[in-house]
Every structure is written in structure tokens, then in C-alpha cells.
Amino acid sequence: MNSALSVNHMAWKLAEHLLSNPDFYGVKVSKSSAGATVIDAGVHTSGGFQAGLILTELCMGGCGRANIDFKSYGAMSLPSITVCTDSPAVAALGSQFAGWRIKESDGSIAIGSGPARALALKPKEIYEEIGYKDLSDKAVLTLESNILPSDMLIEKVAGVCNVKVENLLVVVAPTASIAGLVQVTGRIVEVGIHKLRTLGLSPKIIRYACGYAPIPPVCPDFEVAMARTNDAILYGGTVYCTVDYEDEAALKKIVEQAPSGTSKDYGKPFLQIFREADRDFYKIDHNLFAPATLIVNNAKTGRVFKAGKLNPDVLLQSLGF
Fold first, then answer.
1. Residue 1: pLDDT above 80?
2. Strands of the 139-143 sheet, one edge to the other
């Protein structure tokens, strides 16, 4: 397996910005009883756009860059996050993908993402597919949560990652916080790559990828905030990839099937879809979880395939306009 890039070491360097100037970034740094470092980016602190950008890049294991600017969605311009990576498989699937279910001390399930997964190999089949494993004595985990991690969770993560507890760093941001909203919509490329993978396109043939999506307004209601981040990607997100693909007819078909608009559940705000599904994600058509638009450039031929379109009407309805 390729281990030339250490996503955990690169993420730790990014976290040092937060550690060295917590007041500037609106975060709070603490130590667990066992000695792990915990960065609160929105549970009991304000966080901010800048903290969200660092969290996004950290979640990508330092293998991508993020910035915020304004983009137009119909008649409305909104702050939007753009992410780019030259190591798409490692950044998106090997680090950023929220693929680690961790049991908390109260029995609840915390969803872990970020580079620590590349030490724990969660889930193992992804790392076998992309041919990557990190070799690091430090681990960086991100949690999308309204509570700070328990000592039990911290010790469990350190054990699975095979690092000393004092070499574990956990960054926490609720979905409803501004840092959380930035980093969740900053998963736009990961969502696109994951959808292409489910349609049969190997992540290893994706050379470069970038994408953008609007950052939703802050809302204190977790369910509404969660739904808005989904809609930002489903109705406002665009992903551009450069790939090496031999069979252009097959590539064209994959791209056509990739956007969220191919789903039978498409066309309504995600909050409505979620409630109609009895708040059960597994009852929602999995084809929905994709960017609104995908553009794929085949480097072998120079051709470009595009599918999908933005849907400003549903997007702005969801965001409260």
C-alpha cells in the first residue's frame, strides 16, 4: 500500500494553527483526563469561517485546499466553499469520508471522519481499493457532534489507531455551528467521488478534483441545519474531475447517472424528504446523495462530459429565503 503521504502528520500541522491562536479562530483547546488534545470548534464556542476552512482541510488530511467566496444561485449570491485536491482518492475517501461509527459511553454512535481513519482502516475495504495506509505515530480525528468526546471514546480511538493517547487530537464541531456548516458543505468533492465510485468508477483513476457548494445560514435546530447542508450539495453543489478512462461510452453513462437529479426522491427540500422517510436515512433513495452537477474531463482524449444542473428554487426554499 502507498504510504508516502501521511494524512495524520499533515493534518496535525494544520491543527497547530488552531492550537497556537484559539481566540482568533473562536475555538477552545482542552486536554482529556488521559492527555488527548480536544479542540472545540462550536460546541461551547463560536468557531467561525476560518476555523471551518482549517477543519475542512484537516479533514482532507492536508491533501486539499479550501477557500470561501460568493457564488450566484439564481437571483441570490451566497458564501460558498470551494475545495480542490490533487490526491482525490486519499483526500476524499482515505481521510474525509465519514466512515467510522464509534460507540460513545452513553451508547450513542459518534461518526468519525478525518485522517485517523487511515490508521484504523475504517472501513478496511476502502483502503484496500485505493491502495493507501498511513504510517503515523499521531492521529487526528474529526467529530460532527453536539457534545465533546468522552474519555472512553478517546481511549478507544487511540487504541484502534495504535497511538499513545497524548498523540491523539480530536476536533469537534456541531452541524449547526458555522465551522460545522463550512466543513460539511466542504465535503462536496468527497460526495461526488463516492457517488462515482458506487457507479463503478475507480477512485484511483481520478487525477484531480475540485468542487463548490453554498454554505447554509446558521440555524440552531440540528435537524434543519443537517437538512440544509444536504440541500447545499444536492441542489447547489458542483464537482469537476479529471480522470484517465479507456471506455468513453461507459464513462459518459456513469456521468449521466451521477447527479442527484437522477434520484426518485429529487425535487423536494431534504427536510421534507427526511421526515417523509420517518427520519430514517436508509429509507431514502441512495442515488439522491450526490452533487447537483458533475463535470468529468477524460485526460486520455480531452473530452468533457457534464450532467445535472443546479436547482436554485429548491435550494433557496430550503435555506429559508
1. no
2. 28-31, 37-40, 168-172, 139-143, 109-113, 100-103
Nearest to 300 by CA among 241, 246, 240: 246
| Structure confidence at residue 28 (pLDDT) | 99
Measured CA to CA, the distance from residue 302 to residue 30 in angstroms comes to 51
pLDDT tens for each residue of 141-174: 999 999 999 999 999 999 999 999 999 999 999 9
Residue with grid cell 481511549, as numbered in its chain: 155
Q: For residue 93, give the DSSP letter.
A: I
Q: What mean pLDDT, rounded, does the chain reach?
A: 96
Beta strands (DSSP E) in the chain are 28-31, 37-40, 65-73, 76-85, 100-103, 109-113, 139-143, 168-172, 206-214, 238-243, 293-298, 304-308
Q: Which residues are registered as beta bridge partners of 85?
A: 209
**pTM greater than 0.85 (yes/no):** yes
Coil, strand or helix at 185: helix
Which pLDDT value is given to residue 105?
81
What are the structural domains of the chain?
Answer: 7-318 (3.30.1030.10)
- How many angstroms separate the Cα of 144 from the Cα of each of 50, 53, 136? 17, 15, 23
